[in-house]
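Lecture 7 notes: from sequence to structure.

We start with a single chain of 206 residues. Read the sequence below before looking at the structure.
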Amino acid sequence: MSENKVTEKNRNKWLNGSNAFIFMLAAIVFFTLYTLIIDAITPASAYEVRFESESVNPNAGKFYRLYIDDEYNHDIDYNRYSLTDDAGNTDYKYCTLIDDAARLTYTLILSGMLLIVIFIARDSMNATPFTMKNINRVKAISLLQLLLGVLPGAVRMLMSFFRFSYYSSTFDISSWYMFAIAAVIAMIAFIFQKGLDLQEDVNSII
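Now the structure, written as tokens:
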């Protein structure tokens, strides 16, 4: 088998693998959106929060758990589900929708970042990755990383203000980590761009 055929075979394997990964990203986004839609059309009376012990290990303590239609859904942070309106009423369904919307926002942004990485890898299979197109893509990843640290929290805040007229939150150091990562990615794009400019200067002299 010639070297060209081996290279083409590896290329096809990579393309098939990347297509499968893209399909997986699309499936994750779909099911995240599907969950939000199902929760939106489910009656508010179906939502219930219970404070109960772990059935397998009762000594592990008690947990706040969300039940929908009397079926266990998942453990929750009660600080996010204890919001009340001006009349003092809770709305567990709306709190669930807040979680769903924030999760969908996070999933869309992260999927966009991974999709850009796949495009960079695809274009760099038989050519240099240090192109202006890829540098702009890295800048886009930096911007998306910045949005990843801002938008999900902003969605929570706006939806909370819309229904409850206030927002309850605690300091989350992970957001600062995301800002730092965004700055690092932007710096990498800047270094790549400087390297590309120097290479173009060298080529123009030669």
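The longest helix spans residues 3-41. Keep this in mind for problem set 3.
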